[in-house]
Here is the input.
Amino acid sequence: MSIAMTSAEALRAVEVLASRPLVRLVTEIDDNGAIPPRRLTGTLPDLSTHDVRSASDTARAHGLIRITPGVGLELTLAGSELADLYDAIARWARRHAVPARVCEFSSRIRHVLGLLAPSLTGECLDSASPLVGEGGELGLARPRMLLIRWLADNPQVARVSEPEPVA
Here is the structure.
């Protein structure tokens, strides 16, 4: 499976998906349910107010979250599937001690997405590629397939311009 994506679109998609604030927002909602907008900063105290607002704006612009009256910020189907993708990537990274044996969840996501970015544009795989493991087996084949499938279902992530802040 492949997707038609320019190098710029691939880099944009990886930049958006690997954003630490976005990873934190999506996984927090996935793990703990909807978050009332006024409690967002308190729920993510390790992020600055600017980062929380930017992640929220980005997630809404890309159709990953929605605001449901009386409930708060919740994941859309695309957001829920992204959370599943993050989990699969993190499991692979943990199993392979990437980027280190012990590290933060979002660091694992960012590192693996960085490894996968060149393969999104159809660049050739060779034996030095991080996608190819010892003995020639594809080490990142499954995370790559899941990422490509998610991007094929959500092309707006690579193509949408910067989100407009909500007034």
